[in-house]
């Protein structure tokens, strides 16, 4: 996997005097697919997320568990946005990426907000994110 950068996160935990440190290598691009869910046949093509076009956004806006756990995991990992069956709940994979109520974490939410605020190349049409093989 090609890496485009290296990012260190260091935070002092003042109360007990301990220092927590974590570092992450940033993958250039990540393929996101609902085929990871057993027994689920994706309706749409996989999505390629490219870090390079999002580096002006703070990591923790998207990787919102970092301040708590110092770890970065796949969005659809077990216990996170792992519900592929229903929409609307926080654990819904569909909602996490498409809700227009969350303009910082959701792909579509942020892209739509950008378009509203002026010209932007951030994609909004289904198949500009879901690329068919
Ligand atoms: C606009 C949202 C966004 C921003 C900003 C962002 N990332 Fe990501 N990052 C993602 C997505 C989406 C994935 C793919 C997650 C998945 O596989 O479900 C990802 C994956 C990763 C992974 C691989 C995780 C794994 O599955 O092993 C690392 C490491 C990572 N990002 C680090 C960073 C760092 C460090 C920053 C800040 C410099 C950053 N990212 C900024 C959205 C973002
Ligand atoms: C907080 C805002 C924000 C979030 C969240 C966000 N994006 Fe973007 N996205 C951007 C911006 C800014 C651009 C660059 C637009 C431009 O060049 O005018 C972009 C561009 C893109 C592009 C086109 C350029 C490229 O790299 O291919 C794709 C595809 C894309 N985003 C996918 C995603 C996906 C998938 C997610 C969710 C996992 C996501 N984005 C989440 C802000 C965001
Ligand atoms: C900004 C990027 C983006 C746009 C635009 C977008 N999606 Fe998604 N969508 C994602 C991501 C990321 C996932 C999770 C990865 C995956 O399953 O492909 C996803 C998952 C899905 C899923 C669940 C998985 C599957 O394939 O069955 C469906 C259904 C879906 N999207 C439909 C749509 C439809 C319909 C549109 C247009 C109205 C749309 N999406 C627009 C990023 C986007």
Would you mind describing this structure in some detail?
By secondary structure, this protein is of the alpha+beta class. It has one domain (30-129): Cytochrome C3 (Alpha-Beta Complex). It contains five helices and four strands, in the order E-E-E-E-H-H-H-H-H. Strands 1-2 form a two-stranded antiparallel ribbon. It has a two-stranded antiparallel sheet with strand order 3-4. The longest helix has 10 residues, at 107-116. The radius of gyration is 16 Å and the shape is globular. The two termini are 20 Å apart. 5% of the residues are buried. The site of one heme C has 20 residues, from strand 4, helix 1 and helix 4. One heme C (HEC) is lined by residues 32-34, 42-44, 46-47, 93-94, 97-98, 107-108, 111, 123-124, 126, 129-130.
What count of structural domains?
Answer: 1
Give the cofactors and ligands: heme C
- CATH superfamily, by name, is Cytochrome C3
- Poorly predicted parts: 11-18
**Extended strand count:** 4
Secondary-structure-based class equals: alpha+beta
| CATH domain topology | Cytochrome C3
Coarse morphology: globular
Strand content: 15-25%
What is the CATH C level class, in words? Alpha Beta
Distance between the termini: 20 Å
Major sheet: arrangement of strands: 1-2
The overall pLDDT average reads 87
The SSE order reads: EEEEHHHHH
- Put simply, the count of helices is 5
Helical residue percent? 10-25%
CATH architecture: Alpha-Beta Complex
Largest sheet: 2 strands, antiparallel
């Amino acid at each position: 996997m090609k890496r485009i950068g290296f990012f260190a996160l260091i935070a002092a935990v003042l109360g007990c005097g301990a220092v927590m440190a974590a570092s992450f290598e940033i993958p250039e691009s990540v393929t996101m697919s609902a085929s990871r869910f057993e027994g689920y046949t994706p309706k749409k093509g996989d999505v390629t997320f490219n870090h390079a076009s999002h580096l002006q956004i703070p990591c923790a806006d998207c990787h919102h568990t970092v301040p708590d756990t110092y770890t970065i995991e796949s969005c659809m990992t077990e216990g996170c946005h792992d519900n592929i069956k229903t929409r609307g709940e926080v654990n819904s994979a569909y909602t996490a990426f498409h809700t227009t109520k969350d303009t910082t974490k959701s792909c579509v939410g942020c892209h739509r907000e950008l378009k509203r605020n002026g010209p932007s190349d951030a994609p909004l049409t289904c198949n500009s994110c879901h690329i068919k093989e």
